Amino acid sequence: MRLVFAAAAFVAALSGAHASDSFDYYVFTLSWSPGFCDAGGAAKQPSQCAPGAGQGFVVHGLWPNSAIGPNPEDCGGGGYVSGAALKLTDGVYPDEGLARYEYRKHGTCSGLDPQAYFSAVKALREEIVVPDLLKAPHETLKTTPAALTDAFVAANANLKADNMAITCRDGELIDVRICVAKGLTAFAQCPKVAGHTCHAASIAVAPLR
């Protein structure tokens, strides 16, 4: 991995935040906008799904995850998110509303304050390399979950298939989930996540709209 992971952890340390003991690793989820929109997302995020929006991968979340048992959620204390913290989400989440919701539901369980949490999200978004074939497809791509996994593994040093999952719905790519260690310095093994990757024989990657 490149040093931006360490930089994200350094930002968190400077803020006086600390990792919570209530989880084992993070799941960093990149939502494929066209698939999300086809699966009913247009009603939730009309601007993201509008014709001409041109949205591809956007951050859905950075989720504290437990290796065994339920994952922590809604840990309290997430009522106020400063404008400076929200500025870090520009071009990362599809809108500020989702960013606020994600901090309240998931970020509050990380032990990080909003500034540190969104700094980590932004650093991870900049660090994870999207394979070339998924950067701006303008026609439907027919492939397999295994091929998408291989493409991400090839594009990201040290990433392995057991660090991630491809999710699908109705034969379409919905999101890519990548497990990251609590210290934000390495990818994490996560059988619970990787075991739920899409097992369809084929998968469609809907084009940008």
Can you put this structure into words, describing what you see?
Helix 1 runs antiparallel to helix 6 (114-127). The radius of gyration is 16 Å and the shape is globular. The chain starts with a helix and ends with a strand. By secondary structure, it is an alpha+beta fold. A hairpin with a 2-residue loop joins strand 4 and strand 5. The protein is built from eight helices and six strands.
Biggest sheet record: 4 strands, antiparallel
How much helical structure, as a percent, in the residues?
25-40%
Low-confidence stretches: 9-16
Order of helices and strands: HEHHEHHHEHEEHE
User: What is the averaged pLDDT score?
Assistant: 91
Give descriptors for this structure:
single chain; 209 residues; alpha+beta; four-stranded antiparallel β-sheet; two-stranded antiparallel ribbon; 8 helices
Short description:
The chain contains eight helices and six strands; from the N terminus they run αβααβαααβαββαβ. The protein has helices at residues 4-14, 33-38, 46-49, 83-87, 96-105, 114-127, 145-155, 191-194, and strands at 25-32, 57-65, 141-143, 164-169, 172-181, 203-205.
Write the layout of secondary structure elements.
Blueprint: H1 4-14, E1 25-32, H2 33-38, H3 46-49, E2 57-65, H4 83-87, H5 96-105, H6 114-127, E3 141-143, H7 145-155, E4 164-169, E5 172-181, H8 191-194, E6 203-205
